[in-house]
Amino acid sequence: MKYGIVLDAGSSHTSVYVYNWPAEKENDTGVVQQVEVCKVDGPGISSYSKDVEKAGLSLQDCMNTAKQVIPKKEHRDTPVYLGATAGMRLLSLDNNKIADKVLLSVEKSLRLYPFDFQGCRIITGQEEGAYGWISINYMLGNFKQSSSWMPFQQTSTETSGALDLGGASTQITFEPTDSINESPENFMLFRLYGKTYNVYTHSFLCYGKDQALRLRLANDVKNAGSTNLQNPCFNPGYVKNMSAVDLYGSPCTAKYKLFSSSFILITGTGDYHQCQQNLQDMFNKTECPYSRCSFNRIFQPELSGNFGAFSAFYFVMNFLNLTSEKDLSKVKETLKEFCSESWQQVKEKFPDIKEKYLSEYCFSGTYILTLLEMGYGFTSENWGNINFLRKIKGSDAAWTLGYMLNLTNMIPAELPSSPPLSHASYVGLMVLFSFLLASVVFIGWLYFWKPRCLQKGII
Length: 459
Ligand SMILES: Nc1ncnc2c1ncn2[C@@H]1O[C@H](COP(=O)(O)OP(=O)(O)O)[C@@H](O)[C@H]1O
What we know:
With 459 residues, this protein is of the alpha/beta class. Helix content is 39%, strand content 20%. The structure holds adenosine-5'-diphosphate.
């Protein structure tokens, strides 16, 4: 077995994934399995901007878990990759030098382990989308194709689109049916297992669910001209004091800072319809420099095929018991009901769920619906094409697997030139032909040689 480690340094926390695969089948599709995922206790590495050394130290426990999971003799040959996503993208926009220091501290810590350290970097939103798409299609077995030497079985499976919702950004990636390519920066060309894929992808920075909430609240404060907000996206009776540092301390919201007040008081009113109306403002549909757009002047081809929706799309829809609901109007009804429940009731019903998550499910659910419907253009007709999923065949749906497959060159561009027959069939056919040849020789001998002998005997 071979092993690989990928650290997903997200905006809210870091996850350490350990994968393994049989060495002799490295280039086959679907052979890589996730054997472990460890969530680092504490916030994402971007939160350590004031105490950079701690960013590296925070990974210790999960890296020790990886050390235990991977057999000692494999440690030296196990590559370790760290990819940081939107939390670090935002930090580097804010202060590039500090972002570099955080990455350096993480690198220093990772080099202390007996693995083959391969680098820490901030991946682009486009890469995050594309690797998520590769991951889920690899796990679903959609890259499997019949070999080119069998001309009658050239069936290629359709791929599934990928929808990823993190804390700071969100990605949409799919293979469009039409070939309109008005915005080359939104397309990536892949040649995988002998087939070319032209994939559309876009990452919306600040539209992950945590930054989207801040963006909305910062706008609300600006529009209301007050730091005392009545908010329909929180359950009635919910009251929260949010620090201005928390609200405006990101490049997504910094420009909205108007007041010197150090706190914003939020009081929930729990009204799904008002919440959705309020959130719709975040998706500018009025201007589009292309023939089609999703929102905020971003090109998007017509949606096509099925989509796997993971990360926070799954966490939130799973909490609301909506992962298998294919009827969009029922999804809305459930959300309406949940949002109107009093905060006291919600807390009593779900005493074991983190208060931060619980208090935000009304907002997050409504945001997800608005993003998918208003933003990307899903309707009641194709809502059923979205599959909210956490894992596929035992591995978490995340960009990490695709990242590792790419960096280890484990997805060949061309189909491996496999012999037309398996070894067993080849041996079988050789035996059969040898037997036939021997039979022909024997019959020939009987026919031509033996009768002449017999004739001689008669004379
Ligand atoms: N059980 C959960 N319920 C609701 N939200 C969650 C849950 N687990 C994680 N989240 C949130 O979902 C978002 C995406 O999580 P993740 O993919 O781990 O994020 P990131 O990569 O942005 O750190 C984050 O905002 C995180 O706080």
